[in-house]
Amino acid sequence: MDVKIFSRQGMSLRQIARTTGLSRGTVRKILSQPAPKRYGPRPKRPGKLTAFEGYLLEQLEARPWIRATQLFEELRGQGYAGHYEAVKVFVRGRRQEERASRKACARFETGPAEEAQFDWKGPVTGLLASEPERALHVFRLVLGYSRRRVSRVSLTQKLSEALMDLEACFERLGGVPHRLVLDNFKAAVLRPRPALELQPFFSDFCSAHGCEPVPALPYSPQRKGKVERSFGDFVDGDLLHRAYAGIDELQAALDEDDRRHAERVHSETGQPPAARFEKERGLLLPLPAAPFDPRLPEPRRVLSDCTISWSAARYSVPHRFVGKTVLVKADPKGRGLEIFHRDELVSAHPLVAKGERRVLPEHVAELQRARWDRLRQRPPRRQPKPAPVLVSWAAPEVLLRPIEVYAEAAGGVR
Hints:
There is one protein chain. The protein is α+β, with helices and mostly antiparallel strands. The chain has helices at about 1-10, 15-20, 25-30, 55-60, 70-75, 85-105, 160-175, 200-210, 225-230, 230-235, 245-265, 275-280, 360-365, 370-375, 405-410; strands spanning about 115-125, 135-145, 150-155, 180, 190, 195-200, 210-215, 300, 305-310, 315, 325-330, 335-340, 345-350, 355-360. The longest helix has 20 residues, at about 85-105.
């Protein structure tokens, strides 16, 4: 109240009365009154739905997909006499609390070399002046402790290219983090929950480098918020808003941007990422002695024209492999492919456009000779049966006796 405020400020009754326009008696009466009573919130009165709130909570927890209309029908069967609007308001409030609890998160920091996060930005078009319609991605790995990051131009989000980019990032950092946090992209994560199932080739990559893969739960980007937040400079800056002469020039621009970021003071840590990375470098896991081949082998059957089909193009192999199954290892960056048969390299080709054929002359040189010459030199399919050989046996020796000897043995001549 203004009168009591003026009194606490040291004003007299006459001055307060002159200022407020009240009489001195009224001012005196107001000052003599105790402080006004403060009222708290009214206690909630039980309503028609109060007795059924426990049942509603149980059903919302057991069946989170259930609609308020269905719950209202179930309550009416249990004797509820209230209106549907009360049930709808209760269900809506409960679900808003659940969404808020799922959205809320506790910020945490990781130790040196303990964790790294990676993700993609894109697809983005208009980056190449010669191919403005070509869509590209930006792959980025961020160390959790130092915030040191490495960015790579990526053509696709396929597993083989992701592994090649990870291998390049590890080589740039000089080691491997102990834990690798990733998104649930289908090429690597076959089933995120209830039981995590990873693509076997991706598991082999992590085992070879000694790091533990930790896919974030679906619809929880805050688990890898460090790499998610790092893409904000693409929106605020002009790095991805101009055209480049080629992929090499774009990669050089990304490297320069990462270098400048490493020298700036980070808003969260208060230190440049390059300074904190010096504490982290020695704790990274060592790189494997033998580099991991990130090319995912895929089987193909050799057709009768001595070629295999790959990405809507044809590539030749030696004619002796017709009808056999071979393994194709294609470079994720589009530099070529190699064809193997039982660990033997049988052919290597640069990639060609869709619909084209690449046939090496030495693969079909044997087939280009006259057919009669090839058939004449070919061994017969069935060997002829050998001719029968007559075996001459020695004649048996027969003892010759006169006829009288036999007659005498028979008892005389009759």
